[in-house]
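Revision sheet: structure tokens.
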Amino acid sequence: MTTQIVVHLLPHEIDWFEWQTKQFKLGSSHVDSNIIIDITLNLNLVDWGKSQMPKQYYIDKFNYIETLWDWAETKFDVNENGTCLGCDDKRRTSIRTTEADNILYLDSDLIFKPETLSYMVSAASVVEDEYYIISPQTVRMWDSSWDVITNEEYLTTPANMETYYANDPFEIIAKDITNIELKKINEFKFGGGWFNLLSTKLLKLTDIPDSFGPYGIDDLYVMICCNIMKQKGITVNQYIVDGLVVIENFKYRKNYHKDFLYLIDNQKEYRARAEASLSNELDNFSGLL
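Predicted:
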């Protein structure tokens, strides 16, 4: 079984990806299947002429990080030609070109234990479905709709943004892993880059429509597509690795690179474009089944 880790990286995120790389390296001896790290460094959303940091610094550091992936197959790409402007562009290309069995989405702000990858690929090896999503658990988030992927220890905490943002991610992942169990849940709920592992067959079926553009709501789209599939009698399931917790890093998110880079922020525009296309693309998907 081969798992392809897909990452879209902006220059100011490179330090946190380096930290993640070292976590993966620490846990690599526990991984007994083929891993591909498929990452694009997107240099298109910085005005380098107005920035105090040179572009070459990020390219050189990116190349250094690749050396730490000597235990996996690497696909490290630097994009400067405007063909990759956001995570949807990256994921779409990977979905359409991969021959791996699974795709694992990862955002650079996620904090996780070194053993996380080994648990996720082990879970995939025992799932018999053709179409599936496997997710780790997390802490309680901003509303109760996320409780289905929340670790039991955190279900008693308030469901609001303030509590979620105040979590110390390193304190949480430092806790021992006990009683790991793969459980099927009766709905679809996941955040795109939160270490979710999806069957390639599922993603090749749903795809990420071109109309979504560079960024936005591809996770919501896949969740709704899965519900449509179930309504049409197609077996698709989401599983959680109960006891395996990951968490976004909000508490220590201060990023000093942003003080020296002139960033081009089109995220709201990109997301609005994707949202405007959602209904039509869901109709198209339903019609294909």
